[in-house]
């Protein structure tokens, strides 16, 4: 019962749609009608308001950090369940008819909360790939596969399964981006 309660709380925290809330408050607009229609940080940047974009990014990271750090300190055995629930909350938020974001910022929060070094590996990988190609989606996809590969070669094989699942989920949430990348129709992103 305790596992279920913590899982539900983590899901509900993950499902808080900050991009949607912030654009409603500050711009009086529905983010789902802007750019890609996604509620995440990349699309929040497309509103033209950098403050909203970066605040969305920060809060989407934080909503994963809080529950994961809590279980890390109190019930370590639940860390992967809580991480997955927070991620699924962001991707499938109950408040928006289960149509949420791509999950990358929330995944970054999970990484930093589990192991700060993994968070840095992801961010550095993302930035390098982004500076070369200028596609947020491609940077997210490639950085997501870097994590399980790094873990595999650093002899933490027990964790590879979880991070492999996370890569598959991120691959799934980016399926439309992958099609656009393949057809050379993906929009480049400005982060500054």
Structural summary, described in words:
This protein has one domain (2-182). The longest helix has 25 residues, at 50-74. By secondary structure, the chain is an all-alpha fold. The protein contains 10 helices and no strands. It is globular.
Q: Which regions are unreliable across 5 or more consecutive residues at pLDDT < 50?
A: none
Count of extended strands: 0
Helix coverage percent of residues? over 70%
Q: Give the overall form.
A: globular
State the separation between the terminal residues, measured CA to CA.
Answer: 46 Å
H/E order of the elements? Answer: HHHHHHHHHH
Count the helices. How many?
A: 10
Structural class: mainly alpha
Biggest pleated-sheet summary: none
* Radius of gyration, whole Å: 16 Å
Average of the residue pLDDT scores: 93
Total number of distinct structural domains: 1
How are the SSEs placed, and which strands pair?
Layout: H1 2-14, H2 18-27, H3 41-45, H4 50-74, H5 79-91, H6 104-114, H7 116-133, H8 136-153, H9 160-173, H10 175-182
Concise description?
The chain is 70% helix and 0% strand.
What would the keywords be for this entry?
0% strand; 10 helices; 70% helix; 192 residues
